């Protein structure tokens, strides 16, 4: 039997696996159900609920109903950055604007003591006003030891070893920046090959017209977190300095 309600929420259509466009009280929301076991899922949701920034998709409700954990967030109807990138890299001005918005939002996230752990284009939504929003805090945690979860192409070396902090998110933001500028990820292949290349810390140089961003990318993607940008604000300042050259 098809389920069309979940508590006070009326399910309209499935947006992605386990994520529904739902309605409650005349408001459209995104309802995500835990695939199995809700402890870590809810802990991540409660961390995300601490955030209040225009660049972060807001968590509106979270809990457990009839043995199923769920989280409700505002619905952003625009496409993901991943969908936008299917048409190729955007104009430079837009790529830098989106990266700046990502870093400003991450600065807020990190100041609240939260590590996203899965920054990637499919988790970055483009709102109707053109702004970029961070979504899906399903792997969010605090800095420290953590299971090696994430998306390999965007995982910092220390994250693959089970240790994360805000610099792990900044590494992922560096991969996103490279992808926005070049139209592809810096390291490709199997998860093992990606890890080997990431540990070497030598991202392929950008085309000559974009070469002024090579240094900021090399720092963002440094395999040693101590040599990386230490905060999102530092990363943003480095990006701005490149743009004024």
Automatic annotation (TrEMBL):
Domain Protein kinase: 1-243
Alphabetic keyword roster: ATP-binding, Kinase, Nucleotide-binding, Serine/threonine-protein kinase, Transferase
Keyword Kinase among UniProt keywords: yes
SMART domains named among the record's database cross-references: S_TKc
Listed Gene3D superfamilies: Phosphorylase Kinase, domain 1, Transferase(Phosphotransferase) domain 1
Alphabetized GO MF terms: ATP binding; protein serine/threonine kinase activity
Domain of life: Bacteria
PANTHER family found in the cross-reference section: MITOGEN-ACTIVATED PROTEIN KINASE KINASE KINASE 20-RELATED, SERINE_THREONINE-PROTEIN KINASE NEKL-3
Record-given protein name: Serine/threonine protein kinase
UniProt organism field: Pseudoduganella namucuonensis
């Amino acid at each position: 039997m098809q389920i069309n309600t979940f508590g006070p929420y009326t399910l309209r259509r499935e947006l992605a696996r386990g994520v529904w466009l739902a309605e409650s009280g005349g408001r459209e929301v995104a309802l995500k159900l835990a695939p199995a076991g809700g402890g870590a899922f809810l802990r991540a949701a409660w961390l995300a609920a601490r955030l209040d920034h225009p660049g972060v998709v807001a968590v509106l409700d979270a809990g457990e109903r009839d043995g199923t954990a769920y989280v409700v967030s505002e619905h952003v109807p625009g496409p993901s950055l991943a969908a936008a990138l299917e048409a190729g890299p955007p104009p430079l001005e837009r790529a830098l604007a989106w990266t700046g918005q990502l870093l400003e939002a991450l600065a807020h996230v990190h100041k609240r003591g939260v590590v996203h752990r899965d920054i990637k284009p499919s988790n970055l939504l483009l709102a109707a006003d053109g702004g970029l929003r961070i979504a899906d805090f399903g792997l969010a945690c605090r800095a420290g030891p953590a299971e090696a979860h994430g998306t390999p192409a965007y995982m910092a070396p220390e994250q693959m070893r089970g240790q994360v902090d805000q610099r792990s998110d900044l590494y992922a933001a560096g991969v996103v920046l490279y992808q926005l500028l070049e139209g592809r990820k810096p390291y490709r292949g199997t998860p093992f090959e990606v890890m080997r290349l990431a540990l070497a810390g030598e991202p392929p140089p950008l085309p000559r017209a974009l070469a002024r961003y090579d240094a900021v990318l090399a720092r963002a993607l440094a395999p040693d977190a101590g040599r990386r940008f230490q905060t999102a604000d530092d990363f943003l300042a480095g990006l701005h300095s490149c743009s004024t050259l």
